[in-house]
Amino acid sequence: MEFEQGLTEARLVRRYRRFLADVEDAGGRQWTVHCPNTGSMLGCTEPGSRVWLSHSARPGRKYAHTWELVELPGSIVVGVHTGRANALVGEALDAGLLPGLSAYATRRREVRVPDAPMRADWLLEDHPGGEPPCFVEVKNVTAAVEHGRALFPDAVTERGRRHLEVLADWVRGGGRAALIFCVQRSDALEVRPAESIDPRYAEALREAAAAGVDLRAIRLHPSATGIRPDCPLPVHHQEEP
Prior knowledge:
Blueprint: E1 8-16, E2 20-24, E3 30-34, E4 50-55, E5 65-72, E6 76-79, H1 85-94, E7 106-112, E8 119-125, E9 134-141, E10 143-144, E11 149-152, H2 158-172, E12 176-183, E13 190-193, H3 199-211, E14 214-222, E15 227-232
Parallel strand pairs: 9-12, 11-13, 12-14
Antiparallel strand pairs: 1-2, 1-4, 2-3, 4-5, 5-6, 7-8, 8-9, 10-11, 14-15
Helix pairs in contact: 2-3
């Protein structure tokens, strides 16, 4: 994924009200930007951090700029725009980086799981080996701790837990489903549930894995010019101390 236009560089002043952040340019001018991430953004909101913003000229927008990237200590760049996760996973599928899932010939977005209160991010269909269609849920990951352990979620997510339960029920009924963690940071080596943050989600993840939900993760390499699918990562069911 390449950014359609060059990003604007600034420094983070603060993130607040979930969807807003104040930034400052090199000349000291401050302004408010849209923050496209509903999580806590654990580790990504330190004041003074270098950030990059996209710009939209769409009429009616209250805030013309959107926060896209943040640089963490060690020159680690993290993609914070959760709305890009589905398209990034689509690129990873096209690139063959998710074996088995990449083999499906077609995919549809936002398809309702039958008899369930959930629209899956993708429905993969037409597998050459005759595999059944696969419902796919995508989760964006920005938080990480030492030793390259990326964590999800970074805040309690009842919605995410319910989605896991729906996918597990679908698989128990004979269907196929997958959960793909879209890890927008190039220092990640694995994905684990953030049990200390949301133990109910962690337990639901383990139950989904036991039911047969296919747990996957893909690492992305964000930069000021674009975000590139990098490689698959292992998904573990326990958060290490």
